[in-house]
Each structure stands twice: as structure tokens, then as C-alpha cells.
Design goal:
There is one protein chain. With 228 residues, the chain is α+β, with helices and mostly antiparallel strands. Helices cover 25% and strands 17% of the residues. It has one domain. The longest helix has 51 residues. The N and C termini lie far apart (71 Å).
Length: 228
């Protein structure tokens, strides 16, 4: 009488392991891409909420926007362009886990421990001292191409007080009122895209697997520019 076998042989076990490994290899890229797309959607939605808060702040403050802040101090250098603390006042946005002395809520999903970034041309702060914040904007903004190499673009820094100036010596106002952005997946501050981010479209995220920031821009005319 033949005894009934209740266990796997080594070959059967290895076959099962191989099949599971193959399935993981097939499914993992698709799952990673889906997760990345979901994170992009979330970041875009949170940037919209911040944009709404900036608009509310502007309406209550004679069309002014909060000052931008940058730091070169070693212990705060990585907090460059964090969201302004002014947005937590009157609950324009709720205060989160970021350092309340420096920035507001809304942690960038692609930059844990730090808020989404914010810049607006005009008066701001550098290491707590009053300074001027400028934005680099391409000459053909907002129609600069997505596929242009950043170093081939021509443009100017705008601060609404000193630069740039026209032939008559008058300051040319910035075409951008403010910009907020996520660093996006695979951000590399040494990459040529990052040197011109976040205004030029060539520095924007362009699909699964790509580098690039996720921006939301308010123009001086009141239009909104964001990822399509």
C-alpha cells in the first residue's frame, strides 16, 4: 500500500518560489508606477489647497502675498523656500508637524519632514533679515516649451523692486505673482533641471519615471498654471 505524501519536494518548493518571484517581477513596475501617479495626484491636490489659502491671504491683505524665506545657516539651510508661517494664522491652512517658527503645515509627500516650497518676487527674508526675493522666468513664459534644455533658455530674474529694467530704466513687474511646488520624485538639486526650477516647463514632472517638480503658479493676471 502506497503512503500518502503530505509535503512538497524540494523541486516543487523551488518551482513555487520561482513562480512567485516571476509574478513579483511582472507586477512590481506597474505597482510602482501606480503609486507614483497617486502621489502626484495627492501633491497636486494639496498644492491647490495652499494656492486657495494664498488667494485668501491676498484678498485680506490688499493683494499682498506672504514674504518668502531662505536660509544659509547650517541648521536651517534645507528649509529654503518653505511655506510662510503667515498661512497658519487665521487658519488659512492648519499648522502641521513642520517647525512652526519657520514654516506652515502641508508636508511635501516627496520631501518628508519639509513643507511644499513657496516663492514670490518682492520683499522677503534671508536668515531673518529683510531681503529681496527674485524669480527666474523665461523670456517666452508661459509658452516656453516642455522639451527645451534649461541651459538653452533665456530669461531674467524679477524682484518687482530693482530688476529687471526696461530701456527707460523702469522696473519690469514680474509676470508671476507666486509659485508653490513639490520637489517631485527623484529630485536632484545638482541636476540642470533643478537650477531653473520651478517656473520653466522643462523643469516640471513629465510622466512616470521622470524627474521634475510639481508646480502651481499664479500669474500677475490671475491665471493659474499647473501640471496638465
Amino acid at each position: 500500500m502506497q503512503m500518502k505524501r503530505n509535503s512538497f519536494t524540494l523541486i516543487e518548493l523551488l518551482t513555487v518560489v520561482a513562480i512567485i518571484g516571476l509574478l513579483i517581477a511582472i507586477l512590481f513596475p506597474a505597482l510602482s508606477a501606480a503609486r507614483e501617479r497617486a502621489m502626484i495626484v495627492r501633491a497636486s491636490a494639496e498644492l491647490k489647497l495652499i494656492g486657495d489659502a494664498l488667494d485668501a491671504y491676498s484678498m485680506e491683505n490688499n493683494d499682498k502675498v506672504p514674504p518668502g524665506r531662505t536660509y544659509c545657516e547650517v541648521d536651517k539651510k534645507d528649509q529654503w523656500c518653505d511655506l510662510p508661517v503667515e498661512l497658519t494664522r487665521h487658519n488659512w491652512i492648519h499648522k502641521g508637524s513642520a517647525d512652526g517658527k519657520i514654516s506652515s503645515a502641508m508636508i511635501d509627500i516627496f520631501n518628508p519632514g519639509h513643507t511644499y516650497k513657496y516663492k514670490a518676487p518682492g520683499r522677503g527674508f534671508l536668515n531673518y533679515a529683510v531681503d529681496y526675493v527674485s524669480l527666474w522666468i523665461p523670456d517666452n513664459f508661459p509658452n516656453d516649451p516642455f522639451d527645451a534644455a534649461p541651459f538653452t533658455l533665456t530669461g531674467n530674474n524679477y524682484d518687482n523692486f530693482h530688476i529687471p529694467r526696461d530701456a527707460a530704466g523702469q522696473v519690469i513687474p514680474s509676470p508671476v505673482k507666486w509659485v508653490i511646488w513639490s520637489l517631485g520624485p527623484r529630485f536632484d538639486e545638482n541636476h540642470d533641471l533643478a537650477t531653473h526650477a520651478p517656473i520653466p516647463r522643462s523643469s516640471w514632472y513629465q510622466g512616470t519615471g521622470s524627474k521634475g517638480v510639481i508646480p502651481r503658479i499664479r500669474t500677475r493676471e490671475g491665471d493659474t498654471l499647473a501640471l496638465p
